[in-house]
Design goal:
- It is a single chain.
- By secondary structure, this protein is an alpha/beta fold.
- Helix content is about 30%, strand content about 15%.
- It contains six helices and eight strands.
- Strands 4-5-6-3-7-8 form a six-stranded mixed sheet, with helices on both faces. Strands 1-2 form a two-stranded antiparallel sheet.
- A hairpin with a 3-residue loop joins strand 7 and strand 8.
- The chain is globular and about 45 Å long.
Length: about 220
């Protein structure tokens, strides 16, 4: 994958299995966000390809993703409320009626402790509150794959433990790819640890899943 006249990622090969929890680390500018955006289908690699497989093992359509981008990728002055941000996570779902939609929005508002801020414009939120609203948008549709790019950024300390609990609970029913510089808690939940620094290296520590290349 190239950006301008330089390679952002080179010789990257990664297989993600259903139910994996990947903790992804690496230096700033090393290509972590680029890797996530390729997996999500938001960027096309300059060579190679990405393939998705259905539960039967056959190649299929892109699965249902939930995505929390870095906060600086979001226009905080866009005139929408917390509820509207969270509701936007349901836009691609078909056949959902208004009653179910309202119920799911209320469920997520309570889960992320933002019920009292439901009608507040996002431009009037703190950085941590905006991050929680964006996290709510990512999880509302109960995605098959949850992709989180620095979810702890700006998060209020009093909500941090709650966020860990929510992510841990989701990990029992979804595949998770999570980029974070704060790995103490995350690594305890993850079964794989990926290091991205213009290429990809998988940690072979025994506390994680041991990939085939570590046993050859």
């Amino acid at each position: 994958m190239r950006r301008g006249d330089r390679n952002v990622l080179t010789d990257v090969s990664l297989s993600v299995r259903r139910g994996d929890f990947l903790a992804i680390t690496g230096p700033n500018g090393g290509g972590k966000t680029t890797l996530l955006r390729i997996i999500l289908g938001l960027l096309q690699p300059t060579s190679g390809h990405i393939r998705y497989f259905n539960p039967s093992g056959k190649e299929g359509d892109k699965p249902a993703f939930g995505y929390l981008p870095q906060k600086n990728a979001v226009d905080a002055h866009f005139p929408v409320t917390v509820s509207e941000v969270i509701a936007s996570g349901l836009l691609t779902m078909r056949g959902i009626d208004n009653g179910t939609r309202r119920h799911e929005i209320e469920r997520v508002l309570e889960l992320i402790d933002m019920t009292d801020l439901a009608n507040r414009p996002i431009g009037h939120l703190s950085g941590g509150q905006l991050q929680r609203a964006l996290f709510g948008r990512a999880i509302i549709r109960k995605p098959e794959i949850l992709v989180l790019d620095e979810p702890l950024s700006y998060i209020d300390k009093h909500f941090e433990e709650r966020l860990y609990d929510i992510i841990d609970d989701i990990s029992h029913s979804a595949t998770i790819l999570l980029v974070s510089h704060e790995m103490s808690e995350i690594s305890a939940m993850a079964n794989r640890h990926i290091i991205v620094d213009h290429t990809l290296t998988e940690c072979c520590a025994t506390r994680h899943f041991i990939p085939p290349q570590c046993t050859e």
